[in-house]
Amino acid sequence: MFIHAVSHYLPAQVVGNDHFTRLNGLSDEWITTRTGISERRKAAPGENTNTMSIEVVNHLMAKADLSTVDLIVGATYTPHDTIVTLAHVVQNHLNIADIPTVSVSSACSSLLNAIEIVEGYFALNKATRALVVVSEHNTGYYNEDDTVSGHLWGDGAAALLITRERQSDRDLTIKGLLTGGAAHAGKAVEAVVLQPLERGVIMPYGRDVFQNACVYMPKASLQILAKFGLTAADVDYVLPHQANLRISRNVMQTLGLPEEKLISNIQYLGNTGCAGCAIALSERWDSFQPGERIVVTVFGGGYSYGAMLVEV
After folding, report:
1. Are 161 and 68 within 8 A, CB to CB?
2. What is the DSSP letter of 132?
3. What is residue 90's three-state secondary structure?
4. Domain 172-311 class?
5. Contact 11, 31 (CB under 8 A)
6. Which EC numbers characterise this protein's activity in its record (predicted)?
7. E strand residue ranges, the chain
8. Is the four-CA dihedral 19, 23, 28, 34 of positive or negative sign?
9. pLDDT tens digits for 126-174?
10. Has this prediction a pTM greater than 0.85?
């Protein structure tokens, strides 16, 4: 499989740490020391997961022809509508009839689950050109008064055109990916939850999330590398789920890699959920050089995890 093009969309409003200092007394130093986050984006009134999905697809259409897409996979854990999913609104927007249109939700690891669904459709010869859209409207659900996790979240979306055959010499080759569930581990089913009829996103066991993310992301990374006879030393960049800069640095330390090989946008975007890694790919797309290898690794509440190896 090949990633032919990728785009991202960010709401215009920037929310700095000073907002939370005024709101609940959390200082900029306190937030940045614990999370690495200095600012994040917030959707405007009228914006939501579905509208951001349409915006990011419009951005992608400026880079690639989407008229022959034969599969749409959407991913989010912050849906605007649980019936008319983001995948449906994208199909409607593109006006493409009679193609598979599905959505998936595995918390922050949903990006790789969505790409794995594409892999299955390709393997079964049911599709050849897939549009993957990941979009999160965290601020539509969060409780910003929550001093445990209210300051973590940001909004954003990304879209990827994935093809079964190479389209250009700038395509990223998806060498392989794996995903897994870790709901048996630690406080998995209660560590971080979003119950819309309750209080929104809460994280009563953040330390457990931290510890398991630091275990599963490097573990998955090494597993996908081993499938191709590679080690961490063969990697040019690591792109971990953008949950916490301390987690990302811990992952790099476990892999024995310098921070110069870390791709990170959490500092200025916050935790953008399953969209974070795809946004970062879009941001860095033009800087990747032929022959470089990138490992994308994710971890989500619930718990779920995954890793993907791509080459330029």
Report:
1. no
2. E
3. helix
4. alpha beta
5. no
6. 2.3.1.41
7. 2-9, 13-16, 39-42, 71-75, 101-104, 129-137, 155-163, 172-181, 193-195, 200-202, 237-240, 293-300, 304-311
8. negative
9. 999 999 999 999 999 998 998 988 999 999 999 999 999 999 999 999 9
10. yes
